[in-house]
Specification:
- The protein is mainly α and about 210 residues long.
- Helix content is about 70%, strand content about 0%.
């Protein structure tokens, strides 16, 4: 994850995770949304993978921004603009970089989350991906400020995202398609928070596999 090749490997791994969880994410979305989150994310990252060879020799910033622009143009619903913005903002925070420090990874997550907050106009407690990404960013910051390495930072972020994802179950949705259901949205896990957790977990898992390799 510290190099351009590591970032490319992570994107490939995340795409595989999405393919494996497509039906699960869509089932979550069928309860409180349009029943297409898994399908849309799988299709979008399939398009990202098809684009990666064209930017594989460029810097990490360009790779992530290309991923973001591809998601905006290929993913339907709210997922495309939100994930697209996340990746474009994360890329913009890493201008000209071909290697990353833990502080760089934090800067990318922080910028990506800021983009999601701005685009989605959501805050924590509204049953969205923000409920996974915000505690993930905060947990990563604690590790980085304590001089932890990238692996520790990614695992802390993934663990916090998982807790945030599960915390969406009892929440009343007040943003997005799920908000139309009112009280009936309570008791269901948010699909966007779930895919956000899967994204961070795949980053931590990719780090582990690269260290072992």
């Amino acid at each position: 994850m510290t190099t351009r090749d590591g970032v490319l490997t992570w994107l490939q791994n995340f795409r595989q995770v999405l393919a494996e969880n497509k039906d699960y994410l869509t089932a979550l979305d069928s309860a409180i949304g349009d029943a297409d989150h898994g399908i849309n994310m799988d299709r979008g990252f399939g398009a990202v993978l098809a684009k990666l060879p064209t930017v594989a020799e460029s810097d990490i910033s360009n790779i992530l921004k290309t991923a973001g622009m591809t998601l905006v143009s290929t993913v339907g619903g709210a997922g495309g603009p939100l994930y697209g913005t996340f990746f474009m903002r994360a890329g913009a925070a890493l201008a000209n970089k071909t290697e990353l420090t833990a502080a760089d990874v934090l800067a990318a997550l922080d910028a990506g989350l800021a983009g999601v907050l701005q685009r989605g106009k959501a805050t924590t407690g509204e049953k969205t991906m923000v409920d996974a990404l915000t505690p993930a960013r905060d947990a990563m910051r604690q590790v980085v400020e304590a001089n932890g390495d990238i692996g520790a930072a990614l695992h802390a972020a993934a663990a916090a995202a998982e807790q945030g994802m599960k915390a969406t179950i009892p929440m009343l949705a007040t943003k997005g398609r799920a908000s139309y259901l009112g009280e009936r949205s309570i008791g269901h896990q948010d699909p966007g928070a779930t895919s956000s957790y899967l994204m961070l977990k795949s980053a931590a898992d990719t780090w582990d596999s690269l260290q072992q390799g």
